[in-house]
UniProtKB/TrEMBL annotation:
<dbReference type="GO" id="GO:0009082">
    <property type="term" value="P:branched-chain amino acid biosynthetic process"/>
</dbReference>
<dbReference type="InterPro" id="IPR052352">
    <property type="entry name" value="Sugar_Degrad_Dehydratases"/>
</dbReference>
<protein>
    <submittedName>
        <fullName>L-arabinonate dehydratase</fullName>
        <ecNumber>4.2.1.9</ecNumber>
    </submittedName>
</protein>
<dbReference type="GO" id="GO:0046872">
    <property type="term" value="F:metal ion binding"/>
</dbReference>
<keyword id="KW-0100">Branched-chain amino acid biosynthesis</keyword>
<keyword id="KW-0408">Iron</keyword>
<keyword id="KW-0028">Amino-acid biosynthesis</keyword>
<feature type="domain" description="Dihydroxy-acid/6-phosphogluconate dehydratase N-terminal">
    <location>
        <begin position="40"/>
        <end position="350"/>
    </location>
</feature>
<dbReference type="InterPro" id="IPR037237">
    <property type="entry name" value="IlvD/EDD_N"/>
</dbReference>
<keyword id="KW-0479">Metal-binding</keyword>
<dbReference type="InterPro" id="IPR042096">
    <property type="entry name" value="Dihydro-acid_dehy_C"/>
</dbReference>
<keyword id="KW-0456">Lyase</keyword>
<dbReference type="GO" id="GO:0004160">
    <property type="term" value="F:dihydroxy-acid dehydratase activity"/>
</dbReference>
<dbReference type="InterPro" id="IPR000581">
    <property type="entry name" value="ILV_EDD_N"/>
</dbReference>
<dbReference type="InterPro" id="IPR020558">
    <property type="entry name" value="DiOHA_6PGluconate_deHydtase_CS"/>
</dbReference>
<comment type="similarity">
    <text>Belongs to the IlvD/Edd family.</text>
</comment>
<dbReference type="Pfam" id="PF00920">
    <property type="entry name" value="ILVD_EDD_N"/>
</dbReference>
Length: 572
């Protein structure tokens, strides 16, 4: 156990030098008495709240509950506003700024007099960003998930955010609903604070955080507006104080076994394909190596047990009432490393002793899975030498083995301009290809991967097609969408060489993605390929372009992902 003199903050406040005197004087300027903070763990509360992030609109209030817990446990909380990364509004994509929030998190924790941190997030990129930064900083840290919003409603239907947005927008394009229905849907799709209540990227990544062991047990499944969420926030604030005294750093929790269990859980949830990129990046910050091969190997032995949209029928609120993530984990214990430590101070096994499942349709028994294999498959072939992914549990089964002619779009603007052009001759058997949308080409790998189906096919009743891109897609999306094709077209990956009419084969059972063009013809095309001009000439975008890695490497900055230690600042 630490003593007050062992606290990191003691270097700022506890000595008898000029700078220590200055730091104490400025604390008095802030209105704090010595007995409020001296000799106590100073806890940074990193809050991603903002007026333009609906997923986090309640985190200003939750921060007060976190602080209440810190005070009650004998700590001293300090709230820090950090980048909000609103998936709903930030363009071209908050993925462009995930690493910026990770840098901000790391440097705030490194440069200020704090002993531990409470990380508050939930909207897609905030969870991995906060955990990446905290892992690099290495202090005691606990994550407070924002929680899913309540179910959506429209007339007599239950709506899932994201998933039903795509669905009903296509129905409007097909002419089956009109403006009146669409206006009603606008008011019923997202009804409360909280992130998407489908198994999109937000629910996937907060669940991953829980199984990694960096939240209190059960935290990820609690609806944002439930009173249990208030209590969880306060309990997290209290727990981080004890973690500081115990010297339980995030580094001691995030080991190789934790990341293996996170992959297992994401696959059993039928989770978002974005988790592949984020977990690879997060593991890298923990000094560990994950690859696409790890996901594919685990996927072949993990069943999908969570019957949640878009791959299933229910929503996160139902998942919570059915037993939440602890309930699901209780049915996977033979596939998990349950003897490892979590931020609760207990092992994963100990946190699951009271876990129960209350609805066997929402959380399926092992002998009645939603799917026999994990919901994400990793593909390789001459079109994706470094790999690609598909959420096959959310695709039309008949399309998982398919060969068809390519219809190629060079970027998203080209796609929007020409997707309904009759001269393209797009049929239900065509393979839609979008390039120029990867980490560099997007830029930031936007969620363009659920390419729109042409209007004339929607009118004919077509609701799914094979679509291939170097983009990502929302975890709330669905369909036979091959994503994260690596290397991306912008750096000369084979996607840059595809031409209209080329046959492409998708074979998910064989984990294959092939461009049916002879090697000599591809070599001829490559010789004529010209590298695109840089998108950014200055600023953060230029830094991003110079250092971003490819999708299969986690899209982290190379200078952040590499091994090495930054020195602690001199507080004198």
């Amino acid at each position: 156990m630490k003593t007050p003199e062992d606290l990191r903050s003691h270097r700022w406040f506890g000595g008898d030098e000029l700078r220590n005197f200055s730091h104490r004087a400025r604390a008095r300027q802030l209105g704090y008495e010595p007995e409020e903070h001296l000799g106590k763990p100073v806890i940074a509360v990193l809050n991603t709240w903002s007026d333009i992030n609906p997923c986090h609109m309640h985190l200003r209030e939750r921060a007060e509950q976190v602080k209440r817990g810190v005070w009650q446990a004998g700590g001293f909380p300090l709230e820090f506003p950090v980048a909000t990364l609103s998936e709903t509004y930030q363009k071209p994509t908050p993925m462009l700024y995930r690493n910026l929030l990770a840098m901000e998190t790391e440097e705030i924790l490194r440069s200020y007099p704090v002993d531990g941190a409470v990380l508050m997030g939930g909207c897609d990129k905030t969870t991995p960003a906060l955990l990446m930064g905290a892992a690099s900083a290495g202090l005691p840290a606990i994550f407070v998930p924002a929680g899913p919003m309540l179910r959506g409603h429209w007339r007599n239907e239950v709506l899932g955010s994201g998933t039903d947005m795509w669905k009903y927008w296509d129905e409007r394009r097909a002419g089956t609903i009109g403006d009146e229905e669409l206006s009603e849907l606008e008011r019923g799709l997202a009804r409360s604070p909280g992130h998407c209540m489908t198994m999109g990227t937000a629910s996937t990544m907060t669940s991953a955080a829980e199984v990694l062991g960096v939240t209190l047990p059960g935290a990820a499944s609690i609806p944002a507006v439930d009173s249990a969420h208030h209590r969880m926030a306060a309990a997290s604030g209290a727990r981080i104080v004890d973690m500081v005294w115990e010297d339980l750093t995030i580094t001691k929790v995030l080991d190789e076994r934790a990341y293996a269990d996170a992959i297992t859980t994401v696959l059993a949830l039928g989770g978002s394909t974005n988790a592949v990129i984020h977990l690879i990046a997060m593991a890298g910050r923990s000094g560990l190596s994950l690859s696409l091969a790890d996901f594919d190997e685990i996927a072949r032995r993990v069943p999908v047990l969570a019957n949640i949209r878009p791959g299933g029928a229910w929503l996160m609120e139902d998942f919570y009432y059915a037993g939440g993530l602890p309930g699901l984990l209780s049915r996977l214990t033979d596939l998990l490393h349950t003897d490892r430590l979590t931020v609760s101070g207990r092992t994963l096994a100990e946190t699951l002793t009271t876990a129960r499942v209350h609805n066997d349709d929402v959380i399926r028994p092992r002998d009645k899975p939603l799917a026999a294999e994990g919901g994400v498959a990793v593909l390789h072939g001459n079109l994706a030498p470094s790999g690609a992914v598909i959420k096959h549990i959310a695709a039309t089964p008949e399309l998982l083995t398919h060969t068809g002619p390519a219809v190629v779009f060079d970027d998203y603007a080209d796609l929007k301009k020409r997707i309904n052009d009759p001269s393209l001759g797009i049929t239900a058997g065509s393979v839609l290809v979008l390039r120029g949308s990867g980490p560099l080409g997007g830029p930031g790998m936007p969620e363009y991967g659920m390419l729109p189906i042409p209007d004339h096919l929607l009118a004919q009743g077509v609701r799914d097609m094979v679509r291939i891109s170097d983009a990502r897609m929302s975890g709330t999306s669905y369909g036979a969408c091959v994503l994260h094709v690596a290397p991306e077209s912008h750096v000369g990956g084979p996607l840059a060489l595809v031409r209209d009419g080329d046959l492409i084969t998708l074979d998910v059972p064989a984990r294959a993605l092939r461009l049916e063009v002879p090697d000599d013809e591809l070599a001829r095309r490559r010789a004529g390929w010209l590298e695109p001009a840089p998108r950014f000439e200055r600023g953060y975008g230029a830094l991003y372009a110079e250092h971003i890695t490819q999708a299969d490497e986690g899209c982290d900055f190379d200078f952040l992902a590499r091994a090495g230690v930054n020195p602690e600042p001199d507080a004198r």
